[in-house]
């Protein structure tokens, strides 16, 4: 069984890549004797390694993810993660999942088996939003648990201290993981379109606050865009793919846009 | 602290309204679930902190507005412990009812304060109540001994404003303190004009004497109403001179009006602080009495002056002796209302003097004894006068007749002439000649040298008396003849002679009386109400009185019009504790301050909302 993704590592594989002159230390069994017969020199045959991609889907199911006007962010993230899992499964890649809020709630190790995929879908289906976000802590824990390099796909609203989140994501990069961050947001969180004064209730800790939106809207929007800009700049700077996914955006368009971009990156 | 209207304190409960509205408003607010407020809290921390603070401050300010408002309406006062404070005392309460207390509502405030003070003492206290002025009222209304609180309240109500002034000494003089039960405490409530403290009893110096000071008002007062020229015989109109003084600390603008029967004239006045203006009114000679009123003054009690004037009337003059120039000089007009009606005779012996007001002897050397008796009898009438121009010689009888004025020495024949070198311009005869030289240039070729025994109003060169006045007898030391003087040819001759004649008559041109004067038994006096004023009684009310059938104006004494308060230093010297009626006695009224606080809270709330 082989995946469709190209591994950046050369080694034992079925697909020929190039010849290389034998160097002391190379295993003698790798010498191509046919070439030796023709050229009277020792050459070693190199192959492009084709490995199964190990993908980790990290799904944030904290309370804040339950927010949404048409569809809530968690639902949107669940559909998106299911779609991604399916795509990876179909590509014969190993896919695993971890759901978390204040702690890691569910975790399935990557595998290309169908049963594993079904388990992932079950976890996605049963995930419901609750608790606060401790994103940076969770990411550090997950980074330690993921021994083998792979693709880490994070679906979260990233409502934590940005600097700490970015630092945590970088820890994946240190372990040679490739990271995709889907920043799941609702349109209201970006535009803050509320008109009348109201009591705003925090979906994570349940605290209330009387807010006059008209007084803070412009300032909020400015600061929120600054936050998005910070994530984009710092994550891309750290070679971490970052995509803001608005819940208004259709999934296919969002996935297509991402995959297209991914293709270009490859 | 006391409250004048404590029921308003119930309104403080309404401070709950903003809190209820606040809570209701919060409850009514739509609850909007939001992903997380952490981001808002983190990024808008300052703003939320301020908004939260503003919300609390607004709520507090709204509560304070209501609190201050109702506290203000309840009229809280910080009361003084100096007066009353529930103790038992023998209180001597002097209420200033002098007419300067008629300023604004000063007297009502003084009465109100008196009630407050009385209420503060214990029920066992006794009170000696005395009005400062109008002692007649005091004697009839106020008991001399101490009374209970209830009686004291009633006595205070019975005291009315007086047209008089008075002193503390007089007010105390009628009270009997011999059986007082408690230590005496003296309280004077009034504006404390200087003359109220005249002859302040020394024994009160160490006593507990408190002066509850009523703010002294300003006053515009008619200080004097007189004929502009009392000795001028008016033809159709005479001029009334009204002197109005402004005792206010600021410029007064108002109207001075004169009313006499249907005749009414008004004049606008602008008087600087402490300034005086003279307003002139022309009045028909047929109107002898009326009122002068100043309008737009707060102290209304003295704004009307009742005048009754007697302008000089047409005089009948008899010239004895050389009448060539005198007759023509005094007969300035043949009009029926001419100032003089002049006749002349050679000798006094046949003349009936009863028909004349002035007898003029010009250059007469001597008179008979019988003529002298006639002249003496004539002079006994004060409204008649004798004028004598001395001739070249003076006989013994004539000498004795002029003796009250002077003693005739010798005839003075100067080389050439003498002139007038000193004139008493304050004398009505000469007051119109101030600044002129015509009179001073007149030459006199011979004059009698005399030794004066009475008032000299003019002198010639060498300091020799020229005109000497004694009551209604006037002596001029030179005759009015062409060979004796050239005065007769000067422009000053006629007016001087005119004024000398009219001024020599001792007529009272001002028949007005002042309150406080006593009615004499020789006169029949009726009050403005028509009631007969008893003999020896004191005039109490201003207005037009009838004295022996003549209308006489009775006016208030303008003494209090000066409104000069006893200074703090003087009060200290007299050991008087001065207490402000507004701040200390009745208690400091906090309502205005609280009202400003409410207003301030309201403004602060508006500012907060605008931020």
TrEMBL record, chain B:
Pfam families given in the database record: BatA
Give every Aerotolerance regulator N-terminal domain span.
1-76
- Establish whether keyword Membrane is in the entry: yes
Q: Which UniProt keywords apply?
A: Membrane, Transmembrane, Transmembrane helix
Membrane spanning residue stretches: 6-25, 56-73
| Superkingdom | Bacteria
Q: Does this UniProt record's set of keywords contain Transmembrane helix?
A: yes
Q: Which PANTHER family match?
A: BLL2463 PROTEIN (PTHR37464:SF1)
What is this protein called in UniProt?
Aerotolerance regulator N-terminal domain-containing protein
């Amino acid at each position: 069984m082989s995946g469709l993704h190209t591994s950046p590592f050369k080694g034992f594989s079925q697909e020929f890549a190039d010849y290389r002159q034998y160097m002391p230390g190379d295993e003698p069994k790798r010498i191509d004797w046919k070439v030796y017969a023709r050229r009277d020199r020792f050459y070693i045959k190199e192959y492009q390694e084709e490995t199964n991609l190990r993908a980790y889907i990290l799904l944030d199911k904290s309370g804040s993810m339950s927010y949404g006007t048409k569809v809530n962010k968690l639902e949107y993230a669940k559909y998106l993660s299911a779609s991604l899992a399916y795509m990876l499964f179909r590509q014969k890649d190993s896919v695993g999942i971890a759901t978390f809020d204040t702690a890691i709630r569910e975790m399935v190790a990557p595998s290309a088996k169908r049963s594993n995929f079904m388990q992932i879908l079950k976890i996605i289906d049963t995930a419901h939003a609750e608790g606060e976000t401790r994103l940076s802590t969770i990411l550090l824990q997950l980074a330690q648990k993921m021994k083998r390099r792979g693709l880490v796909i994070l679906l979260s609203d990233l409502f934590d201290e940005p600097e700490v989140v970015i630092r945590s994501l970088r820890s994946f990069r240190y372990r040679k993981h490739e990271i995709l961050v889907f920043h799941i947001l609702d349109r209201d969180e970006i535009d803050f379109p509320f008109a009348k004064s109201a009591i705003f209730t925090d979906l994570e800790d349940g605290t209330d606050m009387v807010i006059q939106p008209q007084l803070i809207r412009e300032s909020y929007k400015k600061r929120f865009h600054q936050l998005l800009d910070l994530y984009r700049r710092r994550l891309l700077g750290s070679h971490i793919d970052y995509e803001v996914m608005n819940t208004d955006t259709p999934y296919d368009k969002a996935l297509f846009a991402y995959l297209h971009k991914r293709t270009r990156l490859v | 602290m006391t409250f004048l209207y404590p029921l308003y304190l119930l309104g403080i409960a309404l401070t709950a309204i903003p809190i209820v509205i606040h809570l209701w408003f919060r409850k009514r607010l739509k609850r909007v679930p939001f992903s997380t407020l952490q981001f808002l809290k983190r990024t808008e921390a300052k703003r939320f902190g301020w908004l939260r603070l503003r919300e609390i401050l607004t709520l507090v300010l709204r509560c304070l507005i209501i609190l201050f408002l109702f506290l203000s309406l309840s009229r809280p006062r910080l009361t003084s412990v100096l007066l009353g404070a529930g103790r038992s005392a023998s209180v001597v309460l002097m209420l200033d009812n002098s007419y300067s207390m008629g300023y604004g509502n000063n007297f009502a405030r003084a009465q109100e304060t008196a009630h407050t003070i009385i209420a503060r003492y214990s029920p066992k206290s006794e009170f000696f109540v005395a009005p400062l002025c109008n002692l007649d009222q005091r004697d009839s209304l106020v008991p001399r001994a101490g009374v209970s609180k209830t009686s004291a309240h009633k006595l205070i109500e019975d005291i009315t404003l007086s047209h008089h002034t008075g002193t503390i000494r007089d007010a105390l003089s009628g009270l009997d303190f011999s059986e007082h039960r408690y230590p005496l405490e003296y309280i004077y409530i009034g504006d404390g004009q200087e003359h109220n403290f005249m002859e302040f009893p020394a024994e009160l110096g160490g006593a507990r004497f408190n002066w509850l000071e009523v703010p002294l008002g300003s006053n515009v007062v008619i200080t004097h109403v007189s004929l502009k020229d009392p000795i001028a015989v008016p033809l159709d109109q005479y001029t009334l001179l009204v002197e109005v003084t402004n005792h206010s600390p600021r410029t007064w603008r108002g109207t001075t009006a004169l009313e006499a029967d249907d005749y009414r004239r008004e004049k606008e006045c602008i008087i600087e602080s402490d300034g005086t203006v003279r307003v002139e009114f022309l009045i028909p000679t047929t109107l002898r009495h009326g009122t002068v009123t100043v309008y737009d003054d707060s102290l209304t009690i003295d704004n009307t002056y009742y005048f009754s004037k007697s302008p000089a009337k047409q005089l009948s003059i008899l010239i004895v002796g050389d009448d060539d120039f005198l007759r023509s000089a005094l007969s300035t007009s043949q009009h029926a209302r001419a100032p003089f009606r002049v006749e002349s005779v050679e000798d006094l012996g046949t003349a009936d003097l009863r028909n004349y007001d002035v007898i003029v002897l010009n250059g007469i050397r001597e008179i008979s004894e019988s003529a002298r008796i006639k002249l003496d009898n004539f002079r006994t009438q004060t409204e008649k006068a004798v004028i004598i121009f001395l001739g070249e010689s003076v006989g013994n009888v004539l000498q004795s007749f002029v003796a009250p004025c002077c003693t005739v020495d010798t005839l003075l024949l100067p080389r050439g002439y003498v002139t007038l070198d000193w004139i008493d311009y304050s004398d009505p005869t000469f007051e119109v000649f101030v600044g002129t030289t015509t009179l001073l240039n007149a030459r006199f070729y011979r004059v009698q040298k005399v030794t004066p025994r009475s008032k000299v109003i003019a002198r010639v060169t060498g300091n020799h008396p020229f005109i000497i006045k004694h009551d209604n007898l006037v002596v001029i030391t030179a005759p009015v003849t062409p060979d004796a003087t050239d005065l007769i040819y000067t422009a000053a001759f006629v007016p001087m002679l005119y004024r000398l004649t009219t001024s020599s008559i001792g007529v009272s041109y001002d028949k007005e009386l002042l309150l406080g004067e006593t009615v004499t038994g020789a006169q029949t006096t009726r009050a403005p109400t028509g009631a007969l004023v008893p003999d020896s009684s004191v005039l109490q009310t201003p207005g037009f009185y009838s004295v022996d059938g003549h209308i006489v104006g009775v006016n208030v004494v303008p003494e209090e019009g000066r409104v000069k308060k006893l200074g703090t230093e003087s009060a200290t010297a007299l050991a008087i504790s001065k207490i402000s009626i507004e701040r200390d006695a009745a208690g400091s009224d906090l309502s205005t301050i609280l009202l400003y606080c409410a207003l301030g809270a309201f403004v602060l709330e508006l500012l907060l909302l605008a931020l």
